[in-house]
Amino acid sequence: MLIFQHGPTREEIIARARDYGMVFREEVVPFAPASRDNAPPAQEMKQQTAGPQQGAPAATHGEILVTIPAGAGLEDIAALLEKKGVAAAAAFEAEVHRQGVEQKLKAGSYYLPAGDIKEIIRRLTS
Length: 126
Hints:
Elements (H helix, E strand, L loop, with lengths): L9 H10 L22 H7 L14 E6 L5 H11 L4 H11 L8 E6 L3 H9 L1
Antiparallel strand pairs: 1-2
């Protein structure tokens, strides 16, 4: 007897991709990258971020869409995560240093779970 196994459905593939933090192109909001001359220093960005941002776009399962721009350093990424309400900047930076993955953080758009710093780092480095 011959058994034919079907592959995953489109919905299953999409669900699995979202579990890995992937987003679709049409979900990403384009932005004009700031020039280095006009970009505020990381310290100023930290001062501007007091807590979770109200009205931040949330994905299914309570995750927040965050776009890490190309060329962003650790302090810039930490400030962005804090501004979006995903993680405290100091805690994120400390864990990145503890794991020694400063140079492995990747630019891109991710759905990130608020408060789960180890999972956030895993997604930003894989």
